[in-house]
Amino acid sequence: MILKTGTQNWTPYFLDQLSWLATNYLFAPTLYKLNPDPFSEFTKFLKTPKLDHYCRMNVYKYVGFYVEKNPALKEQATAWVKDMLVFYDDRLETADCCDGYVVAAAIDLACSLGAKDLIPIINKLLCTYLVDFSDCGLTEEVVEGLHRGELLRQEYALDLYERYHRLEEDSNR
C-alpha cells in the first residue's frame, strides 16, 4: 500500500514534500514492521516504468532504514543494490525506469553500505555523466565515500554556474 502511493500521478512538488515529511518518519518504519524482507517488492516497484523519481529515490532511503534497524541485512542489501545498479546500466541513457537522481540515490546507499566491490559498476555509471553528482559526488569522491562508509553531502552542492555547465555538457553529447 505504501509503495502504491508512489504509482499515483502526483505533482513533483507534492512528492518532494511527501518524501521529505513521510519517508523517514512514517513510511520507512511502517514498511519495516510490515515486511521484514522487502527486496523483491522494492525491485518490482523500481522496475515499474513511468514512476516519479522522488518515489524511486525513497526506496533507497527505505533500504538504508532497514539496514540501520537490522544490520544483518547489510549483505543482502549490498547484493540488491548491485543488481539495481546493473539494471540501471542499460537504462540510464534512455531514462527507462531511472534517471540521474535515482542512480545517485542507489550510489549513495552503496556508499552507506561500504560496498567497495561495486566500484566498477558505479564508475561505469558515473562516467556516463548522467548521474546527478550533486547528490553523490564525482567518481573519486564516491570511491572515498565507499571506503569511509558514507558520503559528505554538504560538499556536493552545485552553484548555478556548475549546474549550467553540466547541462551544457549533457546537451552537447
Describe the structure.
By secondary structure, this protein is mainly alpha-helical. The protein has one domain (3-171). The protein contains 9 helices and no strands. The chain has helices at residues 12-34, 39-46, 53-69, 74-89, 100-113, 119-126, 133-136, 139-148, 160-171. It comes from Segatella copri. This is Sesquiterpene synthase.
Write the layout of secondary structure elements.
Elements: H1 12-34, H2 39-46, H3 53-69, H4 74-89, H5 100-113, H6 119-126, H7 133-136, H8 139-148, H9 160-171
Describe the structure in brief.
This is Sesquiterpene synthase. By secondary structure, the chain is an all-alpha fold. The chain contains 9 helices and no strands.
Helix content: 55-70%
Integer-rounded radius of gyration: 16 Å
Q: How many structural domains does the protein architecture include?
A: 1
Please provide the ordered H/E string of secondary-structure elements.
Answer: HHHHHHHHH
Spans where pLDDT lies below 50 across 5 or more residues: 151-157
What's the total helix number?
9
Strand content: under 5%
Biggest β-sheet description? none
Fill in the keyword field for this structure.
173 residues; mainly alpha; 65% helix; 0% strand; globular
